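ok so i was messing around last nite and threw this chain in just to see what happens. nothing serious, just curious
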Amino acid sequence: MIFSFRAALIAAATLTLAAGVGATAPGVAGEAEKTPVQALNEAAAEQVPTMADSLAALEADDAAAIPVDAVETTETARHASLADAVAAQDMVADDAELNCLAIGVYYESKGEPLEGQLAVAEVILNRARSGRFPASVCGVLTQRGQFSFVRGGRLPQPPAGARAWKTALAVAQVARADAWDSRVSDALFFHARYVSPGWRRARVGSVGNHIFYR
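result:
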């Protein structure tokens, strides 16, 4: 009876030791005890990037998406004022359309403030783009009965050295590049304050000595 009790104790101790070794041994036993959910969670934890990794990846993507020259162009295109935008132009009529636009600005508004000159340039450009007038700036200006400074369908050429002409050239460049907007940037018509044509058009506003309409 005593022998049988001792044998049972020894057998129980042996089984307990074997179970402890199996539970702590690496390899097959340890993997076999993991549930499928635990295995998936551990794999996902190993693959999730840190916050620093995510931010670094985003910054790398942003840098690749925006070319350096595009950033520089955006920065250099900004002007603190219309006067700065005008001063930044090269004041050279490098094509016929720009020359015509500057002629229109010069003869219609050379005595106006810069915004008034820009507003006149915008009217000329808006007409050329509208589909309701000739499709070119030169055509808009030479259209019969539209601009009083035009004689016989010909545009007079301002004196090349005149300061007002150089300003008109710069304003024309600003308008064509859309580098600055006036308060009446969607206008199609204008007239001097001292006349009253009785137009039934929507008034956009006034700048200097001109009143502008759509």
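not much to say yet. DSSP finds ten helices and three strands in the chain.
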